UniProtKB/TrEMBL annotation:
Species in which this protein is naturally found: candidate division WWE3 bacterium RBG_19FT_COMBO_53_11
Domain Uracil-DNA glycosylase-like as annotated: residue spans: 33-178
Keyword Phosphoprotein: no
Entry EC number(s): 3.2.2.27
Any one GO molecular-function label of the UniProt entry: uracil DNA N-glycosylase activity
Protein's name according to its UniProt entry: Type-4 uracil-DNA glycosylase
Annotated SMART domains: UDG, UreE_C
Family: Belongs to the uracil-DNA glycosylase (UDG) superfamily. Type 4 (UDGa) family.
Length: 206
């Protein structure tokens, strides 16, 4: 019998699949609500589904997903320990970044997923996901470090797709990723961070 949390996640999935909250559903093939363990201590939040994700309705299944899988394996983090989703649940055309109004429209789903799963660590992949949690913070300064936000740790990383385009970014991503198990084990303590623009949605995330 599914647990209460599994039922709630299934409800969110159904709501995503019938959502017309922004323009993105019109050009997408499938909604991609996210997948993983309902009791995951780590949640990965990417930008939005790409070509392969849109075709299959699953997150991170293309080349960027393979890289993420390799990084998880190399750092001995099992799939059972993670939940993977995106800022927007339908694919932006031509893999462009989500627009602000699209990210805002989709945010309630991410907030609900966080509330249900209650992860200790949220790994943001790329600039769009970082912007949702830590506004106006450049990824170039934040990547690879943990930041305390309420009861959670936000751990910003470069997006695996960016790493596939640049060997230098790949090297940084591989190095940064090695900090994730250390943060999980409490060997690296998260930094305190001042949130200047506390908006209502941001506060709902923590
Ligand atoms: S991207 Fe999000 S807000 Fe936009 S239609 Fe899809 S589920 Fe709804």
């Amino acid at each position: 019998m599914p647990s209460k949390k599994e039922e709630l996640l299934a409800q969110i999935d159904r709501a995503v699949k019938t959502c017309h909250g922004c323009r993105l559903w019109r050009t997408a093939t499938h909604a991609v609500p996210g997948e993983g363990s309902f009791k995951a201590p780590i949640m990965f939040v990417g930008e939005g589904p790409g070509y392969h994700e849109d075709k299959l309705g699953r997150p991170f299944v293309g080349r960027a997903g393979s890289l993420l899988d390799r990084l998880l394996l190399r750092n001995e983090i099992s799939r059972e320990e993670v939940f993977i989703t995106n800022v927007v649940k339908h694919r932006p055309p031509d893999n462009r970044a989500p627009m602000k109004d699209e990210a805002r429209a989709c945010l309630p789903f991410l907030i609900q997923q966080i509330k249900v799963i209650n992860p200790k660590i949220i790994v943001t992949l790329g600039r769009s996901a970082l912007e949702v949690f830590l506004k106006d913070k450049p990824i170039g300064e934040m990547h690879g470090q943990g930041f305390k936000l309420g009861n959670r740790v936000i751990f910003p990383l470069y997006h695996p797709a960016a790493a596939l385009r640049s060997p230098a970014v790949l090297q940084i991503l591989e190095r940064d990723f090695r900090n994730l198990p250390k943060i999980m084990r409490g060997e690296i303590l998260p930094k305190e961070i001042e949130i200047k623009s506390k908006d209502i949605n941001q506060m709902k995330l923590i």
